Amino acid sequence: MKVLLIILLVLVLIGLIPVGAAFRYDGEVSLRLIVGPFRPQILPKKPKKPKTPKQLEKEEQKKAEAARKKQEAKARQEAQSLIAKPPELPKPKEPLPDKIRGLIPWAKLAVDLVGGVFRKLLIKKLVLHVTLAGGDPAKLAVNTARAWAVLGNVPQILGRAFRVRRSDVWVAPDFVGSKTEVEGEIQARFLVGDLVCIGVKYGLRAVKILLRKKKQDKLRAKQAALAQSNEEGDNK
Predict the structure, then answer these.
(1) Is the pLDDT of residue 225 over 80?
(2) pLDDT score, position 144
(3) Which of 22, 24, 92, 172 could make an S-S bridge to 185, C-beta 3.0–4.6 Å?
């Protein structure tokens, strides 16, 4: 019993691990992955260390080995192509209306999947600071008001599709500055448990669709074989 409780506790803790990404722009682009407490940097890329002669030699050996395997695979394919294969029976063609009807469940699944992902996504932090500068003070004030009208609604718009925990959006004029500055940051993440639930839920739906499609294909093949046998009997 204790072992089961420990396993359950471990699974719960794993399900609570956050995974996502943190994007920041302040004149330079920065991108980090979020995996629990770890924040590995993706952008900007760290400069690579120069390779040693041994590493270069190993890379050359790997390339030569990959080229050799590719040549062997190509030779095997050419040899197999020379072997006479029995003619394959033509598969019954699926009518266009049936094809369209078969795509409808997949389209519904895709829409529901996107909606499910959006509902589970958490925007933990949203920052957007815009400082407009330069030009005529009157025009600058008008442009600031217009920018506010657009950017000020960003948290509300995102909040309709995602969960937004904290947002900080503002637009300000700089009457003495000469350069417009933009600073933004967004941190979005899922929980591992949320991703597992999404995968299980929509994976089962996809399996049901595939099984239904396979059953319909078998029925269609039987009907085509029966029609062909009846046609051959009439010809005799």
Answers:
(1) no
(2) 92
(3) 24
The structure tokens listed for 136 are: 């005529």
Query: Mean pLDDT for the chain?
Result: 86
Cα 5 to Cα 197: distance, rounded to the nearest angstrom: 21
DSSP string, 14-39: HHT-EEEEEEEESSSEEEEEEETTB-
pLDDT band at residue 85 under the 50/70/90 scheme: low
Give the pLDDT of residue 31: 95
DSSP conformation class of 91: P
The residue type found at 127 is V
Nearest 5°: CA angle at 9, between 8 and 14?
A: 100
pTM of the predicted structure, to 2 decimals = 0.68
The C-alpha atoms of residue 224 and residue 231 are separated, in whole angstroms, by 11
Backbone angles phi, psi at 40, to 5 degrees: -65, 140
